[in-house]
Input
Amino acid sequence: MIDKLLDNICEKINDKIKVEIPDIDEERLEVIDYGLKMIMGEIPKLAIMLLIAYFLGVLKLTLLSYLILLPYTIFAGGAHAKSHIACIIATPTIYCGGVILSQNFFQEVNIQRYILILAVWIFGMIMSLIYAPADTENVPILRKKERKFKKIMACVMLTLSLIVAVFLNNIVVSNILIFGCLIRSIMMTRPIYILFDNKYGHEVYQ
Output
C-alpha cells in the first residue's frame, strides 16, 4: 500500500517534469525518478523511526545515532530492504534497538570494554576491506576509483568512530558508536544480503 502510494507520487512528479521539460532524455529522467523514490522513501522511514523513538523515550539519542553513524554508513553501504514497508520496519529496529542496547550494556570502563572495541574494529575492518562499498543491484558502484575511495573512507570512518568511542566520557553515546559500527558492518555481509534478498551490484554488472 505504502509502496504503491509513493510510486504514484513519484510518477506524477515525473509526468510533470516531462510536461515542463519535454526534451529531457530518458536516462536523466531515470536518474531523477530514482532520486525521488529514495527521498520519498526516506521521509516516512525517518518520521516513523523518530516517532517510535519518542514513545520509547530515546528520541534525542536515536537522532544522534542516525547522524553520527551516517558517515560510515554512506561510505560502507549495506543491504537494503526490498520494499518501503520493510525498510520502515528495519530502520527503527536498527537505530532504536542500537540505542537501547547502548543504554543497558557495557556501562563500565574496563578491559572488557576495550576488548569489545578492538573486536568491533577488527570485524568492521575485515568487512569493509571485503565488501565496502556494499552496493546493490539497483544502485551499483562500478567505477574502480570510486570503489577504492569509498573503501578507504569506510575504513577511516570506522576507525575514527571507534577512537572517539574510546575517549568519550558519555558511556551511552560511546556505546552507540560501538554498537552502531558493529551493526553497520554486519549489514554489509553476504548472509544479510541473502536475508534481504539483495545482490552486490558490482557482482551483477561486472
